[in-house]
Design goal:
The chain has 111 residues and is α/β, with parallel strands linked by helices. It has helices at 2-5, 17-26, 43-50, 70-78, 93-110; strands at residues 31-34, 60-65, 83-86. It has a 3-stranded parallel sheet, with helices on both faces. The radius of gyration is 14 Å and the shape is globular.
Length: 111
């Protein structure tokens, strides 16, 4: 479903956490959109595990989830998540992702 809202972006989706974790160990990406409720593993735990990989040091992380618990939002804040998007999301998700990417590229230029 996300593909329809993010036309123009190159997207990779994974059927399971294991395939995702294998992939990110060796590949670099600019932006991750991860759900909290994943089979086998919590998405926040996944982010915590991969955010310090040296080849992902400039990656941006976004949560897309049905969870609205203050506990999850606080953990996301501690992990420096750039956006916490609640499901069901609207077609405005593309605008949100574009803003995050633009802000990140400006931050990189200024630093």
């Amino acid at each position: 479903a996300l593909e329809k809202y993010l036309a123009g972006f190159e997207l990779l989706t994974f059927a399971d956490v294991d395939g995702f974790m294998e992939n990110v160990r060796v590949n670099s990406y600019d932006l991750f959109i991860i759900d909290i409720n994943l089979p086998k593993k919590n998405g926040l735990d996944v982010i915590n595990e991969i955010k310090d990989y040296p080849h992902l040091s400039n990656a941006i992380f976004v949560i897309l989830t049905a969870e609205s618990s203050a506990k999850y939002k606080e953990i996301a804040k501690q992990l420096s998540i750039k956006a916490y998007i609640k499901k069901p999301f609207s077609s405005n998700i593309k605008g949100i992702v574009e803003k995050i990417a633009k802000r990140a590229s400006n931050e990189n230029i200024d630093s």
